[in-house]
Amino acid sequence: VPPRQDKSVQFDATVYIQTPLNKLSDDAAIFFEFRHWKPKKSKISVRCWSMLTLEEVRRHKATNLTLEIYAKPVSYTRKKFVRHSVKDLWTHVT
């Protein structure tokens, strides 16, 4: 088996937030879920996730952001964060 060449997964997608930033509460966040299809269970599952806080959006307007990747389940309450891997894996948002 030849060595794996791909070192990343890239999604060329533009995402629009429907609510203006000034209308969001200060503790708002945007969650990115990396979801995949499980054929044996016939369902979509979350593999890992990242989060972008409103503070980060305001601080880094129009710039590249590097976000940590966390293990499932997604913590929408932001109380428990477990890194997805001991390796340095990141979500890059531009």
Protein architecture, described:
The protein is mainly beta. The protein is 6% helix and 33% strand. The chain has 1 helix and 5 strands; from the N terminus they run ββαβββ. The strands form 2 sheets. It has a 3-stranded antiparallel β-sheet. A two-stranded antiparallel ribbon has the order 3-5. It is globular.
Care to give the gist of this entry?
The protein has 94 residues and is mainly β.
Structural descriptors:
5 strands, 3-stranded antiparallel sheet, mainly beta, 94 residues, 1 helix
**How many helices?**
1
**What's the mean pLDDT score?**
82
- Which secondary-structure class do the elements indicate? mainly beta
Our measurement of the CA-to-CA distance between the termini, rounded to an integer number of angstroms, reads: 34 Å
Number of strands: 5
Q: Report the helical percentage.
A: under 10%
- Order of SSEs, N→C? EEHEEE
Query: What is the general shape?
Result: globular
Outline the secondary-structure elements.
Elements: E1 29-38, E2 43-53, H1 54-59, E3 65-68, E4 70-71, E5 90-93
Antiparallel strand pairs: 1-2, 2-4, 3-5
